[in-house]
Specification:
324 residues, Quinone Oxidoreductase, Chain A, domain 1, Rossmann fold, 7-stranded mixed beta sheet, 6-stranded parallel beta sheet
């Protein structure tokens, strides 16, 4: 099979396509013929050696994938050969044409979704669900501000919040980005590059602010988020690329909460709850990942550049194209 292998931490150029032996599933595992791989910003931070959790070198990156079950190990009854699945976490890395997966990390992929959409589920929708409901305790009728609603996690948060009966304000970069967010179903879409966009958000909330803010770039936006939060507002930090200075009084005056989150901290029980909840939305069409760009597996370096570029429009995916 083909796999992307990282032998030294560094820039995108360390992502090398190599031949690797076909893996075999052990007890309680399945072998998945990978049709699409999800590229997440955390993949870039890990590859660069900038993430607190570093894998042992060499390693194959990636957490999310979708494909077809090729074989099942001993004791597996939940899946059989030919089943369509999406996965969150693999034994040896997802940037490959085949992957071994623990059955607890594999979930049925509805026929209504493409493999590319399946590869966009694990990290983005798991992150959005945990941010909204496990960390912020978001409830029907509340107003949610999704700061950066056009990327993979932003799209997921927008769809989940709408399905739960919340009023959604989403931001995007430039008029095109705001229009894209509006097309996804946001009640209100705001251009976060426009001067005075924060005043526009305040006006949309009647001056009260947002009950929940899902923040993708905290090092840039967190001080403004505190100003945009409603009394008792909850800000969930999903992403940050550096440090930021804050005035604690901004949180004190509103009893506002700043909540960090990482999927690394999600328990097995929480994971089962999240994906069971996602299954309903996937089945009824309320949750539908949006694919922005796809790249061949060998072009993983280009995908890593694209996933951090401004102006995201949906999910970045890799497509293994190995011949039968």
């Amino acid at each position: 099979m083909k796999a992307i292998v990282v032998r030294a931490f560094g820039g995108p150029e360390v992502l090398r396509a190599e031949d690797a032996p076909d893996p075999a599933p052990g007890a309680g595992q399945i072998l998945v013929a990978v049709k699409a791989v999800g590229v997440n910003p955390v993949d870039v931070y890990v590859r660069a050696g900038a993430y607190p959790r570093k894998p042992e070198l060499p390693y194959t990156p990636g957490t999310d994938a979708a494909g077809i079950v090729e074989a099942a190990g001993a004791g597996v009854s939940a899946f059989k050969e030919g089943d369509r699945v999406y996965v969150y976490g693999t034994v040896g890395g997802a940037y490959a044409s085949k992957a071994v997966v623990e059955t607890s990390r594999a979930f049925p992929l509805p026929e209504s979704l493409s493999f590319e959409q399946g590869a966009a589920l694990g990290v983005p929708y798991g992150t959005a669900h945990r941010a909204l409901f496990h960390r912020a305790g978001a409830r029907k009728g509340e107003t949610v501000l999704i700061h950066g609603a056009s990327g993979g996690v932003g799209v997921a948060a927008l769809q989940l919040a709408r399905a739960a009966g919340m009023t959604v304000i989403g931001t995007g970069g430039g008029p095109e980005g705001a229009a894209f967010v509006k097309s996804l179903g946001a009640h209100h879409a705001v251009d976060h590059r426009a001067p005075g966009y924060q005043d526009e958000i305040r006006a949309l909330t009647g001056g009260r602010g947002a009950d929940v803010i899902v923040e993708m770039l905290a090092n840039v936006n967190l001080p403004a988020d505190l100003a945009l939060a409603a009394p008792n507002g909850r800000i969930v930090v999903v992403g940050s690329r550096g440090a930021v200075a804050l005035d604690p009084r901004a949180a004190m005056m509103k009893d506002a909460s700043i909540l960090g989150m990482s999927l690394w901290n999600m328990s097995d029980a929480d994971r089962r709850t999240v994906h069971a909840d996602l299954a309903g939305g996937l089945a009824d069409g309320g949750l539908k990942p949006v694919i922005g760009k796809s790249f061949p597996l060998a072009d993983a370096a280009l995908a890593h550049e694209a996933v951090l570029a401004s102006g995201a429009r949906g999910k970045i995916v890799l497509i293994p194209q190995e011949k039968p």
